[in-house]
Give the backbone structure.
Amino acid sequence: MFGFAFDSETELEITTYIDDVKNIEHKAGIIYRTLRFIHVDNVPNLISAIENATKNYENNGYICLLDDKKSILTRTFIGNIRVIKSKKNNITLLGQVWSNPPGYHKAMKMRLNNEITEKNIWKNFRKEELQGWLVYTLHTMRIDEVKENISIEIDGNEFHNLDGFFCTLGEEVNGIGGYFGRGIYALFDCMRGDFGVKSISELKWLNHQRSKKLFKTKFNEILQVFADYNVKVILE
């Protein structure tokens, strides 16, 4: 379930509840686009509220994913909201949406349903959804203790693209649903010690030739990041 709330300097107040929202995710991040609200609980009230907000130049809000107690799990900002059309209990809006990547809400809903209980759940995601999984892990990972001088092992046969590598690395370093970068620059940030690990002493990369072929120049860039932080990389 989703809820809609207008932007506020205080705690968000849900204006209406929505069964589902279509088109909410996009790889571009910030994009002007239409969204469909499916099964809005009070269509006339929401339309009226948006029209009044537009007159007052305060037509910005949040689309909130809710848990079973209707508490906010995560939210997506939408600005310059306009109602395009409404039919029965569905509404189509136009606005500037600060989207999460495809796959993000899928992962959040799986978390809500306690379905992320083991490693490699991300393998059930499509290639275009893996960045969504990685952003989900960034937003939800809990760090109970900071590890130091750890040794890890990854297998190049277990992932098929660069995003899959970061999904694997995150879980090898920080456990189920763990995060340790979603790109080269993010890996640099993680290696500085703010993401659950103060230092990595050794990385064993099995079937690395397959990864090298897949990643091309990115493979050497990854190795350089580890070299910069004195990680011994064993290529097998």
